[in-house]
Amino acid sequence: MAPYTLALEGQRFCCPRLPQRLLVRLLFIGDVFGRPGRTIVRRLLPQLKAEQQPTVVVANAENATHGTGMTRSAFEELTAAGVDIFTGGNHTLGKPEILDLMQEHPTVLCPGNVSPALRRHGFVIWQTPDGPIAVVNVMGQYCMNGVDNPFRYMEEVLGDPEIGAVRVKVVDFHAEATAEKAVMLRLLDGRISAVLGTHTHVPTADARVTAAGTAFITDVGMTGVRSSIIGLDPEVMMRRFETGIMYAPRVAEGDATLMAVVVDIDASTGSSTSITLLQRDH
């Protein structure tokens, strides 16, 4: 594994050992939180697509509707804005229509290790002019209830012949613990194109490409109100912590920030060549 290397906002970190060939470009948007998150995606994504020319756009949308789950209208809004694939996490099942959405749209994922009944909804193979891209969604066990072992699930997925035939593979690892995400990188290093962490809503400064060609970041961050408390109204959250009373959370209002990463991947080998952090306010 390559030494720990920082990639500051807007700075592109490249793995110099890999030749430049036909590239697949992934634009991955961090947890879209509530109406402010959807609004800034709708406002900025068309511009970002024109600027970055991504092959595929993936967004974590488990918080897209009122901070818990994603409704059909939110799905349609984000799809119209330009999102191709939706990943999720511990709040994915927060809205009942998500099960119908997953049946109707294979691009709507949930972590495949949350239930044996949903294992097949943990990944999708997206066809592009430059070849197929596999996107896998898995959730960590630390601080999560009723979740199967994510490392065994990933071995199961990588053992699937359909996935095995795809060179470009990307994982959204929705997990609380930074150590658990680092272990997932160790497990998958050189075997997949990217391990991208979500869930904490706080972007980390450890984006890098390993010597084996796997792009990694502990957490992409949140697309929502930056002055909030992980997307929620600060006043409500302060009362909860000060009193111990679990007041109902409320999505924060105000100006939002879009947080994302752009990953360039060699289409012929599946190895990443760079990862770039993006944060846009307007």
From TrEMBL:
Pfam families: YmdB. Keywords: Metal-binding. GO terms for molecular function: 2',3'-cyclic-nucleotide 3'-phosphodiesterase activity; metal ion binding. Coiled coil: none annotated. SUPFAM superfamilies: Metallo-dependent phosphatases. It comes from the Bacteria. The active site is at H91. InterPro entries: Metallo-depent_PP-like (IPR029052), YmdB-like (IPR005235). Fe cation 2 binds at E62, N90, H174, H199. Fe cation 1 binds at D31, E62, N63, H201. This is YmdB family metallophosphoesterase. It comes from Candidatus Cryosericum terrychapinii.
